[in-house]
Amino acid sequence: MIPELGNLALVLALCLAVLQATLPLAGSLNGNGRWLALARTAAVGQAVFVTLAFAILVHAFAVNDFSVAYVAANSNTALPLVYRITATWGGHEGSLLLWVQTLALWTVAVVAFSGQLPRATSARVLAVMGLVAIGFLAFTLFTSNPFDRSLPAPPDGRDLNPLLQDVGMIVHPPLLYMGYVGFSVAFAFAIAALIGGELDAAWARWARPWTLVAWTFLTLGIFLGSFWAYYELGWGGWWFWDAVENASFMPWLVGAALIHSLAVTEKRGAFRNWTVLLAILAFSLSLLGTFLVRSGVLTSVHAFASDPRRGLFILVFLAIVIGGSLALFAWRAPAVGLGGRFALFSRESLLLVNNVLLLVAAATVLLGTLYPLFLDAVGGGKISVGPPYFEAVFVPLMVPVLLLAAVGPFVAWKSGSARDVALRLRPAALFAAVSGAAAFLVAHLSPAVAVGLLLGAWTLGATLQLVVRHLRHAPRGTPLVARASRQGAAWWGMVVAHAGVGIFVVGVTLVKGTETADDVSLRVGGSARAGDYTFTFEALEKVRASNYVGARATFAVAHDGAPVATLHPEKRYYTVQQMPTTEAAIDRGFARDLYVALGEATRDGTWTVRIQHKPFMGWIWAGCLVIAAGGLLAAVDRRYRARRVGVSDAVRAAPEIAIQVPTTSRSA
Amino acid sequence: MKRYAIPFGIFAILLVFLGIGLRLKPQEVPSPFIGKPAPAFTLTRLEQADKTFSPQELRGKVWLLNVWASWCTSCRAEHPALVAFAKQVTVPIVGLNYMDAREDGSRWLDKLGNPYALSVFDSDGKVGTDYGVYGVPETFVIDRRGNIRLKLTGPVTPEIIKNTLLPLIRELDHA
Amino acid sequence: MRDRVATLLLWAALAPAAAQTADAALDRRVERVTAELRCLVCQNQTIADSHAELAVMLKRQVRDMLAHGASDRQAVDFMVQRYGDFVLYRPPVKAATWLLWFGPFALLLAGLALLFARLRARLREPDDDAFNEEFPA
C-alpha cells in the first residue's frame, strides 16, 4: 500500500512541477502577480511530495519490502541496515529518484534564498527548474519507476553489489548529485536572464554563489569517487578516464570556467553572453552525463542501465532542454549590451584565456570519450580511447592553465603591465625553477616529473607571494586578523583554491612519476619489497560477517628494519551475489601511501599480492579538499549575503521593462 | 548574428551522433579477420588425442568453427540449436574445445549430443587467441578458399541460424 | 555468462603460473605493455590489472613473447592483429584518428586566436563612458 503512495506522491509532484514551470513563466511575461506568486508555492509543494516519495522508498528498503521489484533487485535481509538505506540509490531507478530529490532540495534553497531577487526573475528561475523537474519526474514515472511491484514477492532480495557496500556509497552519489543538479540553478538564472533580457552585473552576483556551492559539491563528489575507487577496487588506481568519470569531470571543468567568467561579469559587466553560454553548457554537460551512463551508448563499469529505450527518452529530453536553451541563446543573446572595455593584457583578458583553456580541456575530454562512438557511427570501426590518450593530450593542455593561474591575480583590472607582473613574480619563478632543477639534478627524477614539480611550486609560490603582498599592504600596527579580513572571503577562496591546485599538482606528479608496485606470489612468512619498504606476510585468518566470508591477512611493513605499519588486506566473497571483492589495506602518511591488496589464492595457500609504494599520494586528496574549501569560502563572501536594494533593483522589479544597456542604473 | 547559433549547430550534430549511438553495440569487438584467411593451426582431436586436424583439410568446403567449453553455461544454452542445425545441413561444424579438460569436454558432448564433425582440443587457448576469441561461445563461418566470412559472438539461436547463417552458407556454397 | 565456481578454480589454477618469474625487468616490461591493452572481457580494465582468465592468459602470452626476444611493438602488434584496434587504449594515429589526436591542439590555437581577434576588435570600438563610471577600474 505504501509504495503505491510513493507512486502517487511522484504523480502529484509532476503535476505541481508542470504548474511550477508554466504559469509563473507566463506571469513573468504578462505581469500577472498571482501567477508569479505560484512559483514558490508550486515549487515547495513539488519538493514536499518528492521528499515523501523518497522517504517511502527508503522505508521500503529499511523494512525489506521485497514486493517492490527495485528493493528485491538491490537489497537482502542479510544486508546491514545502513547499506539497505544507501541501496536506495544503488540502482538506476533509485538513483534517478535521488536526482529528483536533490533537485527538490536545490529548488527549496532557491525559494528560501532568493528574497532579494525581483519577483519576475525568481519566478523564471523556479519555472526553469520546474521544467527540468518535469523531465526527470516523467522519466522516472514512465520508464524507471522504483515503486513497481513484483508479485508474488520473492522471499529475499538479490543483494546490493558488494562493491557498493561501503561508506563511499553513502556519501559519493549524494554529493556528486548535489553538484550536477546544482548547476541547474546557474542554468535557470541564465535562461531567466535570456528571457527577461536583463543580463548585467547583478545577475552575475546572484548566480555566482549558487555556482560556487554546486561546483564545490561536485569537487567533493569527484574526490570521493576517486578516493573510494582507490581503496575499494584493489589495484591502487584512482582515476581511469572512464566514460562515467569523464562525465563528471567535464561539468567540473566548465563549472570552473563559469566561476571565473562570472567574476568578470560581476566585476566589470563584460562578456555577459559568454557567461550565460557557459552556464547553459555546464548544466548541459551534467545532463549529457546522465544520458551517457544510462543509455548504453558507452561501455563503462559504472554504467547503470544499458537500455536504449530509456536512452531515447533522455535524448529527447536533452534535445528539448539543451536544444531549447541554445536556441533561446541564439535568439536573445545579440540583444544584450557589450560591457566595458579592457586592454589586451588585463585581468579580464587573462580570465578569458582561462576560459578558453578550460573549455578546450572539457572539449578534449568530450572528444576522447565520444570518439569511439563517432567512429563506429560513421563506419570507421571500433577503437578504444583510454588513459594513454588522455594523459598525452590533457596534461599538456593544463600546463598553460597552471602557468597563468598564478599570474592572473597579480594583473590589474582593465589594464595591466606585463613587465610589472613579471618583475613582481621573480621570487615565485625562482622558487619554481629551483624546485624543478633540484628534482631533475639532485633527486634524479625524470624531466616530466621535474616540470610537474616546477608547475606545482610555481602555483604555490605565486599564491604565497600574493598572500604576503596583500597582508603587508596595511598601515603599521594593524593586527594580522584585521589585515586578513580586509580581503573578502571571495579573495581568500581564490587563494585557497589555487593553493589546492598547486598541492594537487605536486601530488599527482610525484605519484605518477615515482610510485613503485609489485605483483608477487607469497605464502605466509614470505616477504617482498616496494620502494624502500619490506612487506612481510605474517598471518592469514578467516573472517565472517552477515553477508560475506573472507580471508584477512596481516602484513608487517618495515623500513630499514624499523617497523612502520601493520596492514590487514582482505579478500571477501559475498555469498548472495557470489562476488569476490578486494579490501585493500592502506597506510596513509604525509609523504607516502603504503598499499597492499590481496589477489587470488591457490589451493596450497599461495596468494598473489599487489604491493605499492606511492609517494605523496595524500597530497592528491589534500589538494582536492583544499580546492573544495576554497570554493566554499568564496561562496560565503559578504557581498553575496547582503541585501542590496537600490534604484536599479526597484526599476528591474517591473517585469515589463527589460533593461538592456545599464547606463541609467547605478548600484546603491 | 549568426555566430550565436553556432553552439546550437554543434549540439544538433552531437545529438545526431548520440541518436545513432543508441543503435550501436559498443561492447562487441569486431573481428579483424573478416575477409582474411583463417589462421592456420594443428591441434589434436578431442576424442582421439593421437590424431590431429588443420583448417587446410577443409579447403574447398564451406564450414563452421564453433568455440565451446564444458564450463560455459551459454554454450549449454546454444547447444540444442547447434545439434538441430547440424542435422539440417551438410556443412561440417568443427568444434574448438577452448581452455577445457579433455575428459570434461568429451563427457559434455556425450551427455548433450555432438553436432560436430570433429572437435579439436585447445587447452591453453592459444589457437583461440589466434582467432581473436575473447568469450565463449563464438562461431566462425569459413568459405571454400579458407577465408573467414563471419564471426558471431554469443550463443547461436534458431533466429540467427535462420536469418544469418543459412543464407550466408547458401551464398558461399554457390560461389 | 560463465559458471562462476569454475571460473574461480580456473583463476586459482592460473595464478601461480602468472607470477613466478624472478626477472624484475621482464616484469616491468610486461606491465608496461599490458597496461596499454584493454581487457576484452571486462572492457574497463587493462590486461595488466584484470583478473579475468582471458586477461591472465593474454598477459602470459605477452610475457612469453617478450621473454623470447619480441620487442614491445611486436607484442602489441600481435594483439592488434587478433583483436583489432579495440584492444589498444592508446588509439593508433591514422587518418581516422587525426581529429582525435590533433583536434584538441587545433581547437586551442583556434580558440586563442579567436579570443585575441575579438579583444583587439573591441578595443577599436568607442568607449562607453557611462559604463566605465559604473565600473571604475
The gist of it:
Chain B is an alpha/beta fold and about 180 residues long. In chain B, about 35% of the residues lie in helices and about 20% in strands.
Characterization of this structure:
The complex is a heterotrimer of chains A (668), B (175) and C (137). Chain A has 21 helices and ten strands. By secondary structure, chain A is of the alpha+beta class. Chain A has four domains: 1-165, no CATH class; 171-412, no CATH class; 413-514 and 620-640, no CATH class; 521-618, no CATH class. In chain A, the strands form two sheets. In chain A, strands 2, 3, 4, 5, 6 and 7 form a six-stranded antiparallel sheet that branches. Chain A has a four-stranded antiparallel sheet with strand order 1-10-9-8, covered by helices on one side. Chain A starts with a helix and ends in a 16-residue tail after the last helix. Mean pLDDT of chain A is 89; it is low at 644-668. Chain B is of the alpha/beta class. Chain B has a single domain (28-174), classed as Glutaredoxin. Chain B is 37% helix and 18% strand. Chain B contains five helices and seven strands; from the N terminus they run H-E-E-E-H-E-H-E-H-E-E-H. In chain B, strand 1 and strand 2 (52-53) form a beta hairpin. Chain B is elongated. Chain C has 137 residues and is mostly helical. Chain C is elongated, with a radius of gyration of 26 Å. Residues 10-21 of chain C have low confidence and may be disordered.
Which helices and strands, and how do they pair?
The complex is a heterotrimer of chains A (668), B (175) and C (137).
Chain A lengths: L1 H29 L2 H30 L6 H6 L6 H6 L5 H22 L5 H25 L23 H30 L4 H32 L10 H26 L3 H23 L13 H25 L14 H31 L9 H21 L10 H7 L1 H17 L4 H26 L7 H7 L2 H26 L1 E7 L4 E4 L2 E12 L3 E12 L2 E6 L2 E5 L4 E5 L1 E4 L3 E10 L5 E9 L1 H19 L2 H4 L5 H6 L16
Antiparallel strand pairs in A: 1-10, 2-3, 3-4, 4-5, 4-6, 6-7, 8-9, 9-10
Chain B lengths: L5 H16 L21 E2 L7 E2 L9 E6 L4 H16 L4 E6 L3 H11 L5 E5 L3 H5 L7 E5 L5 E6 L4 H17 L1
Parallel strand pairs in B: 3-4, 4-5
Antiparallel strand pairs in B: 1-2, 3-6, 6-7
Chain C lengths: L3 H15 L5 H11 L18 H15 L4 H12 L14 H26 L5 H6 L3
The share of residues in extended strands of chain C comes to under 5%
Number of domains of chain A: 4
In helices, the fraction of residues of chain C equals: 55-70%
Q: What series of H and E elements makes up the topology of chain C?
A: HHHHHH
Distance between the termini of chain C: 67 Å
Shape of chain C: elongated
Major pleated sheet of chain C: none
Rounded mean pLDDT of chain A is 89
Query: In percent, how much strand structure appears in the residues of chain A?
Result: 5-15%
Q: Nearest-angstrom radius of gyration of chain A?
A: 27 Å
DSSP strand tally of chain C: 0
Of all protein chain pairs, which has the greatest interface, and how many residues does each chain bring to it? A-C, 67 and 57 residues
Largest pleated sheet of chain A: 6 strands, antiparallel
Work out the radius of gyration of chain C.
26 Å
Total count of helical runs of at least 4 residues of chain C: 6
In whole angstroms, the N-to-C terminal distance of chain A is: 57 Å
Can you count the helices of chain A? 21
Shape of chain A: globular
Helix amount of chain A:
55-70%
Low-confidence parts of chain A: 644-668
Residue windows where pLDDT falls under 50 for at least 5 positions of chain C: 10-21
